[in-house]
Design goal:
Elements lengths: L2 H7 L5 E6 L5 E7 L12 E4 L10 H8 L8 E5 L17 H14 L5 E6 L1 H12 L4 E7 L7 H12 L7 H12 L8 H11 E4 L2 E4 L7 H4 L11 H7 L4 E6 L7 H10 L4 E5 L13 H16 L2
Parallel strand pairs: 3-4, 3-5, 5-6, 6-9, 9-10
Antiparallel strand pairs: 1-2, 2-4, 7-8
């Protein structure tokens, strides 16, 4: 088999880029369309995953965006410290949203990204709230994926319970089955193929075993959250996000972002575009259910606002 044959079997989809945090931790980003001259005239897209998730959540979406036949864009998705291909932090106390926001800024600087349209899923959206208060200029537009300034305690209870007992499946078929059994009621829109893809985003193979792809110490931060009292809200930071073109996606069956909060977000920032994704829970899977087309139209509107 020649090298050309190998390239045909496994085409290069993106570059894995490594950079350093402020204190020297090795962090990872996946960079799509970086060297394509067709992407340079459009705003790039930065993708930020959820609490225990990683760049693989965005792979299919990034492929669609970066290889769009008419309007391709560069897409960069980040692995936070302790997730995916980024190094684990020896001090779990640093697994915080503010530290992760700083890591993203360092990553953008390393990759030559002055500003971008941001997509933040769950925790990624909370990082966007932090950036709105500290470095708003890096964001030209934003998509909050099933997250807002109010986090429902009941939803966090569900996430804590699921993460505390995440099984270690024996093979990929069992991994897909476990995820279907756990999340199937919230995601009736997903097919068997979607669940199989979902499994490969969540788990990683290590020494012949499937393991969740994050540092278990990451969950230490959840243990100290007192869910008997309301969680702090982020309304001032959210209103800061409202200074730019902004969209909020909510999974129809989401337990973390309530319809009431979404309505209040719209009342406070009337320009906010809101979309309810049918057949999805927390958090909508962005390459499915017609979401890429919705995002593409939003990106075009951000371009227009940015160029005027």
């Amino acid at each position: 088999m020649t090298n050309k044959d190998i390239e045909t079997l496994a085409p290069v989809t993106h570059e894995d880029v490594f950079y350093s945090s402020r204190e020297g931790l090795r962090l990872h980003a996946a960079d799509y369309g970086r060297n394509d001259p067709l992407t340079r005239s459009r705003l790039p897209v930065v993708c930020l995953p959820g609490l225990t998730r990683n760049t693989r959540d965005f792979h299919d979406l990034a492929m669609l965006i970066s290889r769009h036949p008419k309007t391709p864009r560069r897409v960069v998705s980040f692995d936070y410290r302790g997730r995916g291909q980024s190094a684990w932090d020896k001090d779990p106390a640093r697994y915080t949203i503010t530290t992760e926001a700083d890591d993203i800024l360092n990553g953008m600087a390393a990759l030559g990204l002055e500003h971008a349209i941001f997509i933040g899923t769950s925790r990624g959206g909370l990082i966007m709230h932090v950036l709105a208060a500290t470095r708003p200029g890096v964001m030209t537009g934003g998509v909050l994926n099933d997250i807002g300034p109010v986090i429902e305690g009941a939803g966090l209870v569900q996430i804590k319970a699921y993460l505390s007992r995440t099984p270690k499946p024996r093979d990929w078929d069992e991994a897909a089955r476990v995820l279907t059994e756990t999340h199937g009621k919230s995601f009736p829109a997903l097919t068997d193929t979607d669940w199989a893809d979902f499994a490969r985003a969540v788990f990683v193979e290590q020494k012949g075993r499937l393991e969740p792809d994050y540092d278990p110490a990451l969950l230490d931060g959840l243990k100290g959250v007192d869910l008997s009292t309301p969680l702090p809200t982020l309304w001032p930071q959210f209103e800061g996000l409202g200074a730019m073109p902004l969209m909020a996606l909510r999974g129809e069956h989401s337990s973390l972002l309530s319809q009431e909060t979404l309505d209040e977000m719209k009342a406070r920032v009337p320009s906010l575009q809101t979309i309810t994704v049918k057949g999805h829970g927390h958090a909508p899977i962005l390459h499915l259910s017609g979401i890429p087309k919705i995002l593409g139209e939003f990106f075009a509107s951000v371009d227009k606002a940015h160029n005027h």
